[in-house]
Amino acid sequence: MKGMVARNLNKINPLKNTIRYSLSLILTKGRKVCTELAASIGKKHDSVQRDLNAAAKNPEEIEAKLLANVIQKNRETPGYLIMDNSLLIKEHAKKIEGVSYQHAGSQEKPGISVTALIWTNLKNIEPVTLFTWKKGDKSKIKTATDFAISFAQKINAKGVLADGAFASIDAINKYIQASVSFVMRFHSNRVIEVPGFEGSAQIAKHPAFKFKKNQRSIIRKVLWHGLELRVIALKIKHATKGWIIMFLVTNMSTQSAQQIAELYTHRWKIETFFRTCKQQFGLGQCQAHSLRKQKAHCLSVFLAYSMTQKIPIPLSDHKNHVGSTYLHPDQIKSLMSYA
Question: What is the mean pLDDT of residues 191-200?
Answer without folding.
Answer: 94
